[in-house]
Specification:
By secondary structure, the protein is α/β, with parallel strands linked by helices. 33% of the residues lie in helices and 25% in strands.
């Protein structure tokens, strides 16, 4: 992969879409993004002999927030980790099917996984700042990838401003990051992610360990960040998905015919307002209305 953010022509990637009038129509022809950053075609994920996720096909739009929702064990986190090849680090993990990132095979032989993870950053469920100063946390990634050190102060400030944290920490940049509150630590992790100029930010349940006030700040931040980045979030909080996402994918886990282990699968993917008000699949309806069991 080449360095820098890929620029995608609107005219080149634009395709005509229609907005179906009924849930039945949407099940046959769901609205697709005008500009797709990711295209997944029949993706299966295995951990050794266990099939964790099967048959996922969807497109993730540029400068949108896409939410993955569904019960525990349905493959949401497994799938989001496929998008920046984090599953490569798990022994026995195997991805089948095709995942394209800006029309390039993400798992092609000539693709550098390290470069993939620079351009497609990850923010994890539990804030994980390094046991270093606030400044060094943000500067760490740019230094590793060889970005210019003579402008590091400016880059650190810009990244902290981008994560809506600068005003709270600008007078204590040398302070250990572990002294920050949980919400501040999570925003610091977001600043650390955007410091290396990614194209996409993946968030795996970024608010599950935070209080409501901190959660609100992270949600507000995501709304701001989507103007510059494509965001994919895994969340168990359906209200959060409804509030912040442009599109929502609902996953569930079902046993194959004849029994055996339960495998994750994509049930439905569409505009968030449609998923929550007029779902095309009864399993989606049962989940979003609390009747799922």
């Amino acid at each position: 992969m080449t360095q820098g953010r890929t620029q995608v022509s609107h005219d080149q990637d634009h395709r005509e879409t229609r907005i179906p009038e009924t849930a039945k129509d949407r099940a046959l022809a769901p609205e697709v993004p005008a500009q797709a950053v990711f295209r997944l075609d029949d993706v299966h994920v295995h951990y050794g002999k266990f099939l964790a996720l099967r048959g996922v096909t969807l497109e993730i739009g540029r400068n949108e927030i896409t939410a993955f929702i569904g019960p525990s064990g349905c493959g949401k986190s497994t799938l989001i980790r496929c998008l920046n090849r984090m599953n490569d680090l798990i022994p026995g993990a195997r991805v089948e099917g095709r995942i394209e990132y800006h029309d390039q095979d993400l798992y092609g032989e000539d693709v550098d996984p390290v470069e993939v993870r620079r351009r497609i950053g990850m923010v994890f469920q539990k804030p994980n700042p390094f046991p270093k100063s606030i400044y060094e946390n943000v500067a760490f990634g740019p230094r590793v990838v060889g970005m210019r050190s003579d402008s590091m102060d400016e880059l650190v400030e810009r990244s902290l401003r981008g994560a809506a944290l600068w005003d709270e920490v600008k007078g204590k940049l040398k302070q250990n990051a572990l002294a920050l509150s949980g919400g501040q630590q999570q925003r610091l992790c977001i600043a650390r992610a955007i410091a290396v100029a990614p194209d996409v930010i993946l968030m795996d349940e970024p608010c599950s360990a935070l209080d409501p006030v901190s959660t609100g700040r992270i949600e507000d931040l995501m709304e701001q960040l989507k103007h510059d980045y494509t965001i994919v979030i895994v969340t168990h909080n359906m209200q959060q998905a409804a509030r912040i996402s442009d599109r929502t994918a609902f996953f569930t886990a079902e046993a194959a015919e004849g029994g055996g282990d339960r495998t994750g699968l994509l049930v439905e993917y569409d505009r968030t307002d449609s998923i929550f008000t007029q779902p095309a699949d009864k399993r989606t309806e049962d989940y979003v209305t609390g009747r799922f069991g």
